[in-house]
Amino acid sequence: MADARRLRNLQMAFREAAYARYVAGNSVSLVGNWMQRTATGWLAWDLTGSSAWLGIVAFADLFPALLIGPVGGVLADRHDRRLLMLAFQSAMFAVAILLWLAAGAGMLGIHLLLVLTTLHGVLVGLNQPARLSLIPQLVRGDLIGPAIAINSMVFNGARFIGPAIAGLIIATFGTSWAFFVNALTYIPFLLALSTIRPIPDERHATRAPFLTQIAEGIRYVFDNQGIR
Predict the structure, then answer these.
(1) In which band, very low, low, confident or very high, does the pLDDT at 16 lie, cut at 50, 70 and 90?
(2) Which of 90, 128, 138 is nearest to 217 (CA)?
(3) 159 and 34 in contact (C-beta within 8 Å)?
(4) Which of 171, 60, 55 is nearest to 112 (CA)?
């Protein structure tokens, strides 16, 4: 009975037009994101043959997102989350195009790859809080739980699908084509974000200074084991 109710709630979440468009675009974009991570790792190894460089590039992609995340959280609290996502996703789209063009022209050396990967990591860190906190503004209150569950399933599915597709493309056509396909995956999500109209956030909390909010967010994370 409980399983049937959960399934029904998942189906009802997809009946929310804005949320359905968000999930469709987000799914494609996340697959592309994991394609890019696979392609950058492969290219780092192909360029250098060094496991150290492979680790450095992976670190450059992931660590900035963790470091800059609190800043993204404060921005998501203060500004329109949909517009923030449009800005950050557009910037990541530009990075993806640069990776494709540089790789296709044979100009993507290890140092440029490191710079673009780091920039992508920073943008992910700024974007992620808005990406997660926008979901409750796309569905009714009783469907927030199922909507978040769907988002988690999409993310975990993309972690498997993206690298598999990237591997096939790299083996068949080359690394630059993996970057090209990744760039294309941003387009559906940007179109979805351009058309959805989130439910207004009615909270009117008193805003602390920007740096104070960042410090409070970091302190909250360290004080809650469930989040860590």
Answers:
(1) confident
(2) 128
(3) yes
(4) 60
Please write the tens of the pLDDT for every residue from 109-147.
999 999 999 999 999 999 999 998 898 888 877 778 888
> Could you give the dihedral angle defined by the CA atoms of residues 105, 108, 112 and 114, in that order, rounded to the nearest 10 degrees?
150
DSSP assignment letter at 141:
G
Supply the mean pLDDT for the chain: 86
Does the pLDDT at position 213 exceed 90? no
Query: In the numeric block, which tokens belong to residue 114?
Result: 């490191």
Rounded to the nearest angstrom, the gap between the alpha carbon of residue 75 and the centroid of all alpha carbons in its chain is 16
* Sign, Cα dihedral of 104, 106, 107, 110: positive
CA distance 139 to 153: 17
Beta carbons within 8 Å of 200's beta carbon, 6+ residues apart? 137
In contact, 54 and 41? CB cutoff 8 Å = yes
Query: CA separation (Å) from 127 to 4, 105, 159, 178?
Result: 34, 29, 18, 23
Residue pair 154/25 in contact (Cβ under 8 Å)? The answer is no
What span, in angstroms and rounded, lies between the C-alpha atoms of 55 and 57? 6
Domains of the chain: 16-199+206-223 (1.20.1250.20)
Q: Where are the beta strands (DSSP E) in the chain?
A: none
Q: According to the model, what pLDDT value does residue 76 have?
A: 86
C-beta separation of 35 from 165 below 8 A: yes
Residue 165 CA to residue 160 CA, distance in Å, equals: 9
